[in-house]
Specification:
The chain is an alpha+beta fold and 132 residues long. Helix content is 17%, strand content 52%.
Length: 132
């Protein structure tokens, strides 16, 4: 008899928990990532950059891969390397001088005419060390 009450309590608790999960609101999924290979490159070599991102809540998005160069404390401004309306962007960037290159993905949400873009998400930057 005691075992039957425990089993009933466990089944009841699982039923309440599953009902609570089913009644919870749905959340839109949003993600962003960036990869650059190799992590160390020689001057004149090409760095392959791949960015991905998307947001289920916004129908129109633009993914932009941005680059900045320099050294920590003396960084240049971020500038766009390439953009994609499909959420998957790739770029080949030639390392022109020693130091560091940083890349990041920026996801912008726009209206159907791709005007009035608002920043949705920004990835953490990846760094490529450029040597002679």
């Amino acid at each position: 008899m005691k075992l039957g009450m425990k089993r009933f309590a466990v089944v009841g608790a699982l039923g309440v928990a599953s009902a609570a999960l089913a009644a919870s609101p749905a959340f839109a999924k949003s993600n962003i990532s960036i990869q650059a290979t190799p992590h160390a490159a020689h001057v004149g070599h090409v760095v392959k950059v791949h960015g991905q991102g998307g947001d289920d809540a916004n129908q129109y998005t633009v993914l932009v891969i941005q680059e900045r160069s320099g050294k920590p404390g003396h960084w240049g401004h971020w500038h766009a390397v390439t953009r994609s309306f499909s959420g998957d962007a790739r770029a080949n960037v030639k390392a022109t001088y020693t130091g560091e290159l940083q890349f990041r993905s920026v996801l912008y949400s726009t209206d159907k005419h791709h005007k009035h873009a608002k920043t949705d998400r920004i990835s953490t930057p990846v760094t490529v060390h450029v040597v002679r």
